[in-house]
Every structure is written in structure tokens, then in C-alpha cells.
Amino acid sequence: MPKRFVVAASRFSDLPRFPDGLDLAEALTAAARRLHETSTPDSTLDIAVRLAVDLVPGADHAGISVIDKDNARSTLACTDDVVRTAEESRPGEGHQPYWHRLWAAPVAEAEDTENGACEDTLAGLGLRSALSLRLRADRRRLTVLTVYARKPRAFDEAALRVGRLFTAHVGIALDSATVREQLTEAMRTRDLIGQATGILMERLDIDAAGAFDSLVRASQRENVKLRDLARRIVDAHSAP
Fold it and tell me: Does the pLDDT at position 238 exceed 90?
């Protein structure tokens, strides 16, 4: 189950507010800079939903979620609990939600939720329109950025243009943060396995190759990830 994040507006008092007259390229450059300053995918998502409200004309709320083929939707980041409730509700029996169209197109929109048979939950929450844009897609799941508005037909062509440009920046920043996190984890794992190997060398009086081979065999035998087994060995060795 993906992690869930609710982003309090007070955490982002230092975020730039983009006045109407500011050139779009400058606004997106500033947003991209903030996104690339993040250190983890989680923090990238946190920043992205707040920036989406600041950037996309008409947006009052925003969320990023993962959608599975069976239309199950899990929130990864959101500006408030209203968004989480909206995104994790299920459509009525026999109905396809508006965002089901994202499997075939990069954008899906609900112009007026009070006139949609499948969007009654949004209307009940005071969310009258929604614009969803794909961030990532494969055969089994979609990662989606959605902005919501409290009035109907809030998102025009300008909002669509800004939204698509912004999601491109978010996708690149998210990929970069993911790679950085993976590299950091790989370095930590390497150090951890090295420590465990050294402990086994001393304990079993064997060389490094033999100690590592013993660690791998134990990992396979116990069906435990190598790094988790290494952590257990290091923790046990460090315990009083």
C-alpha cells in the first residue's frame, strides 16, 4: 500500500505565489527548481501538489494518486483530507469514473460533477470540477495528478496547457528523486553487507568470499532479503 501524505498549507509559506502577469516560462522554471531541490520521491510529491494549486488556473485543491486497472485508487499526496476522500471513493456499480479515460488519453476532465452520474461523491464534497493528468503509466497502473475546483467548468485551455507542462516537470523531478534514493539505498546496503561479511569472517574464521557466500546461502534458505539478513547480523553483533 503506497504511503499517504496530507500537506498542510502552512508548511509551504515560502513557496512562490505566481501573479497573473508573470510569464509562464518563469513560473514553471521556478516550480521546476523547487521540485528538483527535493531529496526523495515523497518530498517531490509533497511539493508538487502545493505547486499545482499555485500554478494551474482555477485550482483549489490537488492530489497525486495511483490508479490500478480495477479502478482502485490510492492517494500518494494531497493538499487536504477533502482530496483524499474524493480520490479513494469508489464509483457506483456499473459506472466508470471520469478518470477511467486516462488509460487511453493523457488528460481526463469532469466539467460539472453535479451533472455527472459517476461524480456524485465529488459534488457532495463541494468539488464541482476536476482535471486529471497522467504522470506515469504502464499496463497495470497509472500515476495521476488531479486538480479540483469548487466551481463548475473551472479549467479552460490555459489550465490544460499549464497542467500538461507542469506534469512534465513533475515527472522528470520524480524520476530524478527516485534514482537518487535508489543510489543512496544501494550505498547503504553495500556498507551494511560489508559489515555483515566482516562479522562472519571473524566469527567463522573464513575469508571474504566465503563469508559473502555464506550470507547469500542463508538469505536464500530463510527467504530473507540479503540486506535484511545483513541488518540482523549487524544488529545482533552490536547488541550488549
Answer: no
